[in-house]
Amino acid sequence: TSLYLFCNVICHFSFLGVLAQENLPEDQFAHGSSYIAASYIKYLEGAGARVVPIRINRTEEEYTKIFYSVNGLLLPGGNVDIQTSQFTRAAKIFYDLALKANDAGDYFPIWGTCQGFQQLSVLTSNKNLLTLTDTKAVALPLTLTPAAQSSRLFRSFPKDVLQSLADENITSNFHSWSLSLQNYSRNAKLKRFYKVLSTNTDGKKEFISTMEAYRYPFYAVQWHPEKSPFEWIDKPGMVHSIAAIRACFYTASFFVSEAMKNHHSFSNLVEEERALIYNFSPVFRGIHAVFVQNYYFD
Length: 298
Prior knowledge:
EC number: 3.4.19.9
CATH architecture: 3-Layer(aba) Sandwich
CATH superfamily: Class I glutamine amidotransferase (GATase) domain
Distance between the termini: 30 Å
Main location: secreted
CATH class: Alpha Beta
Enzyme class: hydrolase
Structural class: alpha/beta
Number of domains: 1
Shape: globular
Signal peptide: 1-20
CATH topology: Rossmann fold
Order of helices and strands: HEEEHEHEHEHEEHEHHEEEHHHEE
């Protein structure tokens, strides 16, 4: 066991948890109670991480054990109630554990995409401050704030990738709800906690599209970097350009590098192997499904 732990620390393995969520009622492929879209798994694997699916409806003790076995957590996009769902319950347990760990000097990153972004805003402010926007299927350039250049997230990006993000319609937006700049600015908790790195507008409302916490390694994007290389639904807002795919890689690569900053690991190889996504097979839902492949869990 000690040799196993030593190897994990020295080799800089990183295990990233991806939180499952309740199945969508209209999903004819669904079995069990929850799913993870395979694009999130591939997104992290493409940057060199191994993925641990985190299922809903587990005990706090089980989640705590997983927390100390993985090196970071991704909260994916989707469509559940971000105040009452099992997804929210699990996200809150991990969020609270991450706050405590980071306060104690144990660096634990969290990444939220789309619904994950929204979930983080609710967990931090203790209320739902989201606003309806006309952003259901649209690709946009990011309006980067002055803080973006020196941010942890963007400062290591190649200049041309950052330029593409700012100039080209390469960020995929598939959301009805957004955190408006106005609501963020009026909420002291959010303002103190998160630095705004980019905004966007639907023509009427300006909303936050990228943010990172000041004191914690927490990152949130309202757009979908993982869709460009891995999802193929034929809708406006889906972008497969080289610039979009590079942006996908650099966001994932950044998050994986953040996860390498702590030494959480499984206590032995048997536990590790049991926890990994490789134990599950993705279900092909059709090339033009919202998610081409899903993993389903009990």
